[in-house]
Structure formats: structure tokens, C-alpha cells
Give the backbone structure.
Amino acid sequence: MIAGNHDGFFDPRSRHQSDVHNTLNFKGIHYLQHSTVTLTFPRVGDRQLIFYGAPQIPACGGDDFAFQYPSDQDAWSDTIPRSTDILITHTPPRHHLDLPHGMGCEFLLREMWNVKPKVHVFGHVHAGYGRESAFWDEEQKAYEKVCARKRFGLFRDFLDPFAWLDTARVAYHGFKGVIWSRIWGGTGTGTLMINASLTYRSTGKLGNAPYVVDI
């Protein structure tokens, strides 16, 4: 379990005055705040999985929002253990399930390129609910470059030859990746990314189904 920007109790900077002296008993729940836990599963041969959780988000609200940092500040480099199997954050990485306004963190994305966990679970951007796979290859680099381009309007963007070139790179590397994996039997290091937001868009109401993942 991790906290998010609406969980002010867990961040002294946003905790309500009436909660200053209160405490919580987590009992059997593992609460992760810039921390790691290793879980062992006896029914599958004592298999172990390493979980790392962190709650911070690029600033997007007032003082009552918890765990905020300036959006141009790197709050992620060299913070996630390289041995992490399951990464749990509140913010998405930039360009991945962070629609509609690219609210994910570019510094978290950079850290993801170093860590490459098996699964990355996040939320925060309700409209980005869903799942996708990232393979940390040339196609993904090209895709993220396209997403990072500045937008100047539909007409101007349509006539921009560099935009078409970047798009062509995505198609080329994507096609090459399909040939590599489906025909030549190649494998790569991939991450399943899941935006597990249960709140449906900006309605404030639960409407998205939970995800169940087999690892």
C-alpha cells in the first residue's frame, strides 16, 4: 500500500491539525513510503518478489495535496532499487497512461529506463486508466520522442517534416520489433504498466474495475 496526493495524513506538510497526534495501526498491511518489502510465496516454491513504493507527485494542487514536488525538480533519480520486481507509485511516468494532458513525471520515466521492473502500478491520472507494455527498446524511445514534441496546432503539426520523420521511426522500429519477437523468436526486457485508478475520470465516483495480474 502507498499513499497519494489526497492522503494528507501521511505527509506532515499537508496533515490536518486535528490529526497531528493521531496514529494508525496497519496490522498486516505493508505501507510503503520510499521503502521496500520482500514477500515470499510458499505455494509457488517460496518465490520472492521485491516491492518498492513511493507516493510523490509533480505539484498540481494546493497545500492540502500531499507529497508534492515542483514539476521541474528531479525527485526520482537513483531512488528505486534496481532489484525491484513490482514498482508502485502514485504518479505515472510521462507519456504512459497519463492522458489527457501528459501529467506523468519525466524524471520517473528516466528512472524507469534504468530499473525496468516486471510490473509498474500507478494511478493519479484517472483518465489514463488501462494497461500497456513497455519494452525499453528503440521503438519506445521513438514513441516517447513523438509524445514529447511541442504542439503548434493541427495544421502546422501536419506539415512538419520532422514530425513525420519521428512518426516513421516509431513505425520502423515497431515493425522491426515484431519481426524480432514473432519470427526470429527474440526476447526483451518488458514492463507491464497499469494505471489502476478506480475513480472514473473526474466524476469523483468509483467506476473502473480493479486489475488482476498474473506474474
User: Anything to note?
Assistant: The mean pLDDT is 87. DSSP finds four helices and eight strands in the chain. Strands lie at 35-41, 47-54, 57-58, 68-69, 86-89, 119-122, 130-134, 191-195.
